[in-house]
């Protein structure tokens, strides 16, 4: 990276960090580009140069969160020897990391927001497709190891993503203990439908 690119990346990071704090404090809707301008000292044009829109900026933060989540999972995945245990491990990470994440409230606002620009919709689709691929790989591992019976892997990954997305909405007002119990039950119900009958 040359000096100009380094400066550009530094500005982008500064804007993203300041915006994250504002989104956490005020929520998605209540944070304006003017607020971000005020917090960073960057011009509106400079912010739009890096992120195109407030939506684009927020989605950048969501994508960053997604990468952090995956990195955390990769560090602990080896602690779970079976795919079944991995499923419960993922559920636990969702409760402990996602439900308590500072951006969770703003993210709910963002995803429930009205119309989104087509480029933002495309990036959201890519994000969801990344989740589905992650679950497909996991479920296929379970089939290959003989833990799960042969089934429609793509369909199961959509169901699992829908299950966890729904749980995140339903768990927001629960205590961590109750949320963990609910996720645990949901994973049990899901697995009972695909676990190989060994009797």
Please describe the structure with a list of short key phrases separated by commas or semicolons.
single chain; 199 residues; mainly alpha; 9 helices; 75% helix; elongated
Topology:
Layout: H1 3-26, H2 33-40, H3 44-51, H4 54-76, H5 83-98, H6 104-111, H7 118-144, H8 153-170, H9 176-192
Describe this structure in words.
- This protein is an all-alpha fold.
- The protein has 9 helices and no strands.
- The chain is elongated and about 65 Å long.
Q: Which structural class matches the secondary elements?
A: mainly alpha
Helix content: over 70%
- Alpha-carbon distance between the two ends: 60 Å
Quaternary status of these chains? single chain
Largest sheet: none
Q: If you compute it from the alpha carbons, what radius of gyration comes out, rounded to the nearest whole angstrom?
A: 19 Å
With helices defined by DSSP (H or I, 4 residues minimum), what is the helix count? 9
Total beta strand runs: 0
Average per-residue pLDDT, rounded, comes to 90
Low-confidence stretches: none
Per DSSP, what share of the residues sits in E-state strands of 2 or more residues?
under 5%
Order of helices and strands: HHHHHHHHH
Shape, principal axes of CA atoms: elongated
